[in-house]
Design brief:
Number of helices: 15
Largest sheet: 13 strands, antiparallel
Low-confidence stretches: 404-415
Strand content: 15-25%
Number of strands: 27
Distance between the termini: 18 Å
Helix content: 25-40%
Oligomer: single chain
Length: 588
């Protein structure tokens, strides 16, 4: 399970953390100047105050942030959408550097928290946590003052906000996160938990926040090799979908490794906090040496937070040289559920990625509703995709239909449905790309990927321009985007490092049987002595159907039953039990 020198690797990662932290602080503080269109939430400003750098510019930024509701949004958006982000940024300044706030800055921040209703117009998972974290921190800071829009003193809110936040963390400890494995919103949750861990008045809340920080990192590590974070993801945006380096923000900062310096800078709260992951997480981050299957169960994506019985069963196969994974089952939403419209919102259904180059990846996708989405982020409203991963193979079917099948009032009228699917395969990154026998092939670093589409794929530069398409997100899209036209599709992706050459891989793949029936939507593929098949919600490997839903965590390194709120983490030096019910970490 672990390298023989895992302890030395872990010690090296821990010992170099201070250097990474100092370098990242310098990135955020060297040359920091006020610009009303950047650092709009005041997070970098709070870091500069904490580090005692660029105090005048940081104060000016925070004064502008405190005027959030008094002037147009710097980027033209509705200010009610991101008001909780602004509130958390200013709360960070209040708690991390109160003595470096100029009097006028402090007056305007006080006015924001005491006179303005900063609750966001959005009710998604991260916005709920952002709001209640910021409100709780404000209630502590202004315990003896009245928060006008609630008509109550801050101190009167503390008990109920503490209960909300403790119950929120406990719920996620047992049910998982709806915005699961999100490149962007994972860091938002992290910021909230860091502030709660450091400043909550309630000891149990501080402990729960600290434990959840470890479990969130564990969740990332289990689907990662170094800074490359693979498989399926909830709430993803185009830059992240096309380049997995954006997923290494937290693992790169805390654990280091190759290409860490290319990762996005972590949240400023990470640098201001004294939080460090437990030693077992360092062992897991740098010490795993085996190929393994990681199965997980996630909370069915919904808005606002609701208790839904359905689950998302997520499967990832992690090897030292590649990562492949998919959503193996997404349960249907309850009949007539008001949450149904949110299914597949910005969801990255599957991915096959070669370790060593974050853009050396292949996935297919249906762009859904362009009013809410774009070329690379999910299948909102159509919900036409089914995926299934087993070891190094992914199957996917797409049954694209008109929006008329959806009658929920949340669905926007007049939304256009796109009758094609697209695939990402970056010709400028891969060492070789070949098209042969109805398959697309790519090679990088001795790892090979094959892509099959029942209707064939063609590079977008050759596409029929009469087909109404989503506008490309980036220039030169003909270098990485493949298109397959039509309403019904069967897709196969296989990744392998077993062959000595791309030619050997191609020869083997072309001999593998694949069948797709567009009438029944049954897709089957045989490779390496096993037949993987799917039809609708049914899946099977060699005729045996897997059991769904999966556990909350199920891998050689992490185990947890859904609803138990107990996570067992197997490090190189022993097992730790994160018992959220007791708010304790216990060594077994």
């Amino acid at each position: 399970m672990f390298y023989a020198d895992t302890q030395a690797r872990a010690a090296q990662a821990e010992s170099t953390f201070a250097e990474r932290r100092a370098r990242r602080i310098d990135e955020k503080t060297q040359g920091y100047t006020y610009d009303y269109k950047t650092d709009i939430y005041g997070e970098d400003a709070a870091l500069n105050l904490w580090a005692n750098r660029n105090l005048a510019a940081a104060n000016e930024r925070l004064r502008n942030t405190a005027l959030w509701f008094d002037q147009p949004h710097p980027h033209g958006r509705d200010p009610r959408g991101e008001s909780t982000f602004a509130a958390l940024g200013m709360a960070g300044a209040l708690y991390h550097a109160p003595d470096r706030l100029e009097p006028e800055t402090k007056r305007l921040i006080d006015r924001f928290f005491l006179e303005k209703n900063f609750e966001s117009m959005y009710e998604s998972e991260n916005h709920r946590l952002l709001h209640h974290t910021a409100l709780y921190l404000a209630a502590m800071f202004y315990a003896d003052k009245t928060i006008a829009y609630l008509g109550r003193r801050g101190g009167e809110l503390l008990d109920e906000e503490e209960d909300y936040l403790k119950n929120y963390i406990l719920y996620r400890a047992g049910a998982g996160w709806g915005e699961f494995d999100s490149y962007g919103y994972m860091t938002v949750v992290f910021k909230c938990l860091l502030l709660l861990r450091s400043f909550a008045r309630d000891e149990r809340l501080r402990k729960l926040a600290a434990m959840m920080l470890d479990i969130l990192l564990l969740d990332v590590i289990m689907d990662s090799v170094g800074v490359q974070y693979g498989g399926a993801h909830g709430r993803i945006y185009p830059p992240s979908a096309l380049n997995a380096i954006h997923g290494g923000t937290l693992t790169g900062y805390y654990f280091g490794g190759a290409r860490e310096d290319e990762c996005d800078c972590p949240p400023c709260d990470c640098m201001m906090s004294d939080y460090r992951p437990g030693h077992a997480l360092y062992e897991l981050a740098v010490g795993r040496n085996m190929a393994y299957v990681n199965k997980e169960s996630k909370h069915l994506h919904c808005i606002p937070q609701a208790v839904l019985e359905g689950r998302i069963s997520k499967y990832t196969y992690v090897t030292p040289r590649y990562i492949i994974g998919a959503i193996n089952r997404q349960d249907p939403y309850p009949e007539d559920s008001a949450q149904e419209w949110y299914a597949h919102h910005e969801q990255h259904e599957m991915d096959a990625m070669i370790v060593g180059e974050p853009r050396a990846k292949v996935f297919t996708h249906h762009p859904g509703d362009f009013k809410e989405h774009n070329q690379w982020t999910g299948d909102l409203h159509c919900r036409c995709v089914q995926t299934f991963c087993d070891k190094n193979v992914i199957l996917a079917t797409y049954d694209i239909h008109d929006h008329g099948a959806l009658t929920n009032s949340h669905v926007q009228t007049g939304a256009h449905q796109y009758f094609y699917i697209n695939a990402y395969m970056n010709r400028d990154v891969m060492e070789r790309v070949e098209e042969r026998g109805g398959w697309m092939f790519a090679a990088y670093g001795g790892v090979y990927i094959a892509l099959y589409g029942s209707s064939g794929f063609h590079w977008i530069a050759e596409a029929d321009r009469s087909v109404q398409r989503v506008a490309p997100m980036l220039p030169d899209n003909d270098r990485y985007e493949l298109v397959s036209d039509g309403k019904k599709h069967g897709v196969v992706i296989e990744i392998s490092d077993a062959e000595d050459s791309l030619e050997q891989f191609i020869e083997r793949i072309l001999s593998n049987p694949v069948s797709f029936d567009p009438e029944t939507m049954r897709l089957a593929y045989t490779s390496g002595g096993r037949t993987v098949e799917m039809q609708g919600m049914a899946r099977a490997v060699n005729g045996v159907s897997p059991a769904f839903p999966y556990k909350l965590f199920d891998s050689p390194y992490a185990q947890s039953e859904t609803g138990s709120r107990v996570v067992r983490v197997a490090g190189a030096s022993g097992t730790l039990v994160y018992d959220f019910n007791k708010a304790e970490i216990i060594a077994e």
